[in-house]
Amino acid sequence: MKHKKLMFAALSAVLLFGVGLVANAADTSIIVQSTTSTKNSGLYDHLLPQFEAATGITVNVVAVGTGQAIRNARNCDGDVLLVHAKASEEQFVADGFGVARFDLMYNDFVIVGPSDDPAAVSGMTDTAQALVQIAEREALFASRGDDSGTHKKEVTLWAAAGLDPTGSSGAWYRELGSGMGATLNAAVGMGAYVLTDRATWISFANKADFKIAVEGDDALFNQYGVILVNGSVCPHVNVQAGQQFIDWLISDEGQNAIGTYEIDGQQLFFPNAQTNGTG
Amino acid sequence: MQDFAEPFRLALALVTAGDADLFEIIALSLRVSLLAMAIACVLGLPLGALLAVTRFPGRSVVLVLVNALMGLPPVVVGLIVYLYLSRSGPFGWLGLLYTPTAMIIAQVILITPIIAALSRQVLEDLHTEYAEQFRSLSVPRRTVISALVWDGRYSLLTVALAGFGRAVAEVGAVIIVGGNIDHLTRVMTTAIALETSKGDLALALALGFVLLVIALTVNGLVMALRLTAGRHVHA
Predict the structure, then answer these.
(1) Does the pLDDT at position A23 exceed 50?
(2) A201 located within any domain
(3) Do both A197 and A236 map to the same domain?
């Protein structure tokens, strides 16, 4: 009998333990499908407390690559999409999954590499020429290879340089299939050049001897957009709270909050919202 | 090569400073993985016991299957659970994706085969030992099972700990179905993955040390329980 009592006590403990896991305030929270760059750079830690204080809405950020974020949003697993691949975002809206797309902010991509600079591209501003040089010298280049916003940008940069590096995949062109942070860690480990957004690079802590090699090309422009997931396609979308979040982000207050975020005195994102979205 | 002293010092500083975020993450790790272990035991132990004492055609096929499922890749389990719990999936109406409950479901699927397969082996070995006695007394099957489970309880505790260890250490499943959301679904392993991706390897390793200490503590507590219980029996 003593065993039964013990079992009962243990079972009750387990049940009590489990209760409370279920409770999850639904009305006052939204899920934002977003990119790793905005998350890892600490931007959300800077923005969300301000938004939450102003509205009482909790914002839950799922940070994945842009490709995966868009797929998740297409599955209706999010209320707001905040990513950086304009063409894919416009497709998302055109396919009816998004209400309208708003430009939100921008920064730029940079190519970083080891300080011994095996392809001699350091200081260049012509991305196409730099990529040609990297390919000619078969210097190691680490690619995200994961259909993320950064990966899409990299693919267009190679195409603009008139090259297809995938033929050398596994040789000097290394497709990691990983997030930005994991790819940077690997690139640093291999001594490979890699394309990264500036925000992630500035906040990245494992730089070793790596430095920015190529920057300042117009082709390296990196625009972020924000989209409300369409409530008539995805009925569970918290339209009101999601819209409130977007309205706040593109308002003077939100834009100002984005512009004042700095790491070591460097501004990471530059607000450029217009109040008219494109659908 | 990174220096191990710095992460170790950092881990100590985090714990002694009583970092609220850290304790929230530790608490969620424990709640998710202990609950997953408990549910997996409720499902896996009877299955293991049944497989241990029954003989039926195709039994060896079932055994191979259960044993093979011990090697389920967490990322595959996470993906499957995601597809089911997604708003566009069959159980999307439950609204469970990106909640601790989703993480528990994924871990239960991951470790139930471990509990079932290992408990089957433990109980079958015991059963072989006692089979003749049971047969001569013509003990009914239900009584056989409960006698075996009771006699094998300490070994089964280790089985449960193996399940807990797998659950608390995996990252592939919980990061997909939980989303690693701050203050909602972030656990130790996903926090370690996040810090690694930020390039903060010292902090990532420090969190790894803390996770090791958690595993040690849970195992130590169980060992203490077992020793105390053992003393009572012999007293």
Answers:
(1) no
(2) yes
(3) no
Mean pLDDT of B126-152: 90
In a shared domain, residues A96 and A51:
yes
Full-model pTM? 0.86
Beta carbons within 10 angstroms of residue A240's beta carbon: 13
Helix (H, G, I), strand (E, B) or coil at A14: helix
pLDDT digits (tens, 9 = 90+) for A162-201: 999 999 999 999 999 888 999 999 999 999 999 999 999 9
pLDDT at residue B211 in the model? 95
C-beta atoms of B100 and A3 within 8 A: no
Task: Please check whether residue A24 touches B, CB under 8 A.
Answer: yes
Dihedrals phi, psi of A244, to nearest 5 degrees: -60, -40
Residues A199 and A167 in one domain: yes
Given a cut of 50, whether residue B235 has pLDDT beyond it is: no
Q: Give the range among A3-12, A265-274, B169-178 with minimum mean pLDDT.
A: A3-12
Q: Are A181 and B87 an interchain contact pair (Cβ–Cβ within 8 Å)? A: no
Residue A10 lies in a domain: no
- Please state, in angstroms and rounded to a whole number, the distance separating the CA atoms of residues A195 and A154: 7
d(C-alpha B147, C-alpha B145), whole Å: 5
Q: Is residue A279 part of a domain?
A: no
Q: A135 and A211 share a domain?
A: yes
**Which positions in chain A touch B91 (Cβ < 8 Å)?**
none
ipTM confidence: 0.80
Per CATH, the number for B24-202 is 1.10.3720.10
Say yes or no: A181 and A112 in one domain: yes
Which tokens sit at B43? 């499902």
Using CB atoms, pick whichever of A26, A74, A181 lies closest to residue B199.
A181
Give per-residue pLDDT as tens, A221-252: 999 999 999 999 999 999 999 999 999 999 99
Best of B1, B87, B104 to disrupt the A interface (most A CBs within 10 Å) is: B87
Task: Quickly list H helices, chain A.
Answer: 2-18, 36-40, 43-55, 66-74, 86-94, 127-136, 149-160, 180-190, 198-203, 239-250, 252-259
Q: For residue A71, what are the domain limits?
A: 27-107+222-271
